[in-house]
Amino acid sequence: MSEEFATAVNVNIRVRVTLSAIKRAVCLRHGVAAREIESPERTWRLAYPRMIAMTLSRELTSNSLTAIGERYHRDHTTVLHAIRRVAELRAEQPEIDARYDELKMALCVSQDGPVQ
After folding, report:
1. Which mean pLDDT values do the consecutive 10-residue runs of the chain (116 residues) have?
2. C-alpha–C-alpha distance, residues 36 and 72, integer Å
3. Is 31 left (phi over 0), alpha (psi -120 to 50) or beta?
4. What is the 3-state secondary structure (H, E, C) of the chain?
5. What is the CATH number of domain 3-108?
6. What is the pTM of this model?
7. Would you list the domain boundaries of the chain?
8. What is the pLDDT, as a whole number, of residue 81?
9. Nearest 5 degrees, angle CA 116-CA 29-CA 60?
10. Which residues have C-beta within 8 Å of that of residue 17, sequence separation ≥ 6?
């Protein structure tokens, strides 16, 4: 975990992050289109960014699992599976953990500044 991220977490900085902003950022970072990430296709090229987006959505918003799932045309249990799978991947692979933290930090920086 980067020092900046740790500092942000320690001072309980909260920002307003929308599901749309998360989807855009993840799609941009992984080189996929929003319509692709919402598709029923299960290839790793699409499933992985979809799982990342669902996990970030749960972590950074107050939306329910059902609301997040609907955004990606999935069931709430799929969102729960994604959250668990991303946690496993982050624990097993430091590079995935670092990229996840970088994306999270990028989303937490808003033009208007953090919401305290």
Report:
1. 45 73 96 96 97 97 97 97 98 98 89 43
2. 10
3. left
4. CCHHHHHHHHCCCECCCCHHHHHHHHHHHHCCCHHHHCCCCCCHHHHHHHHHHHHHHHHHCCCCHHHHHHHCCCCHHHHHHHHHHHHHHHHHCHHHHHHHHHHHHHHHCCCCCCEC
5. 1.10.1750.10
6. 0.83
7. 3-108
8. 98
9. 25
10. 60, 61, 107, 108, 110
| pLDDT for position 6 | 41
Nearest-angstrom CA–CA distance, 23 and 33: 9
Predicted pLDDT at 109: 84
- Residue 13's pLDDT is 55
